[in-house]
Amino acid sequence: MIKLPDLKTADIKGKRVFLRADIDVPLDNGKIMDDTRLSESLETLNYLLQNGAKVVLAGHLGRPQGVGHDLSAEPVARWYQNKLKIKNEKLKMIKIGELDAWEISEAVFVLENLRFDPGEESNDPEFSKKLAGLANIYVNDAFGSSHRNHASIVGITRHLPHYAGFMLIKEIETLSSLLDNPQRPLAVIIGGVKIETKLPVVEKMHQIADYVLVGGLIADETKVLLKVQHEKVKDRKSALLVADLNSEETDITSKDAENFLQIISLARTVVWNGPVGVTEGKEKNHEIATYKLARGIVDSGVYSVVGGGDTIGYLKKIGLLEKFSFVSTGGGAMLEFLSGDKLPGIEALIR
Fold it and tell me: Is CATH 1.10.760.10 the right assignment for the domain spanning 182-338?
């Protein structure tokens, strides 16, 4: 089990804390469509405020090319303003050091989208120093970004005492237990379209899981590769099921969905990342396989872990997200951790 520096051991009273949070939420014309990641940051944020700290909260939104108004952090700042029940009539932008920030209150500030500065993604040493100059202590509560070698995740830790936030610790503890001592049988469902990030985790799961179920575009495009990969794994424990697509190539077949559900009914732990078909369209389309899998997992009472933005967004839309045992804020980070990779943001905290 990875031992992370415990925030509760830090002297934060009267200090200014740089809180790196996951604020990368889906926006539609400036409206937040899914606030799951923001909600998960509140435990750490409230702890800091209740113990006398001032908080500079920061993160990124999307992939802007330079400064872009449509990816401003202003909607996120307004969300925190509402959640903290701070009744400022007008949200005010100020300067903290050289950086733009939204002043929520005398104790809470939200930095503008970090990716507006190219130094964030390049982990530029000078940008890291600028960020560190805003605070006395650094706290990482952004598991979903901890697989990135960026300034606000890695570079800043070279200049400030650093700690893990409560959500980050929960993520590491939960995912570590899946690798070290899961309740068996363990079934892992991998879907979606990001083949390059998901093949390594499928390979790792051959040695850990009892069942590996693969559906969606990743299954269709890599079916032969997946089966060859499975045969080559030494000491493998898993049975592999790779689903076919239906004739419209929008979903896995009904037969494969039923096969997946049968495995779910046998499992005691299910890990799921990525829908197995198209989920857009009608608000509640009970015919699609992704819905059937979600319903099957919930109804089985199995210990369930889910991650990935598309999957979480869909589960929230159909009202089933809260019925899962653990919701990971990481998509790519969750996959990389489960595949055995060391995450730069975690390594930075423990060095």
Answer: no
CB neighbour class for 334 (10 Å; exposed up to 12, middle 13-18, buried from 19): buried
Q: Which residue from 269, 343, 271, 280 is spatially nearest to 310, judged by alpha carbons?
A: 280
Residues 296/264, Cβ–Cβ less than 8 Å: yes
pLDDT of residue 57: 98
Question: How far apart, in whole angstroms, are the C-alpha atoms of residue 254 and residue 104?
Answer: 50
Residue with the bigger pLDDT between 197 and 324: it is: 324
**The token pair that represents 82 in the structure block:** 């509402």
Beta-strand relationship, 137-140 and 162-164: parallel
Taking the C-alpha atoms of residue 200 and residue 306, their distance in angstroms, rounded to an integer, is 18
Using alpha carbons, select from 42, 46, 23, 54 the residue that is nearest to residue 135: 54
pLDDT digits (tens, 9 = 90+) for 199-210: 777 888 888 889
How far is 303 from 269, CA to CA, in rounded Å? 5
CA distances from 301 to 167, 170, 257, 297 (A): 24, 21, 18, 7
Which single residue is written with the structure tokens 């089966």?
227
Cβ–Cβ < 8 Å for 58, 77: no
Domain 7-168 falls under CATH 3.10.20.600: no
Extents of the domains making up the chain: 7-168, 182-338
Alpha carbon 274 to its chain centroid, in Å, reads: 12
**Helices then strands (H, E): number in the chain?**
12, 15
Q: What is the rounded (10 degree) CA torsion for 60, 62, 66, 69?
A: -90
Task: Kindly give the residue spans of alpha helices, DSSP state H, lying in 5-124.
Answer: 36-40, 42-50, 74-83
Kindly report, residue by residue over 152-176, the tens digit of the pLDDT: 999 999 999 999 999 999 999 999 9
Q: Token pair for residue 314?
A: 């869909």
| Arithmetic mean of pLDDT over the chain | 90
pLDDT tens-place string over residues 3-62 = 999 999 999 999 999 999 999 998 888 899 889 899 999 999 999 999 999 999 999 998
Q: Do domains 7-168 and 182-338 have the same CATH topology?
A: yes
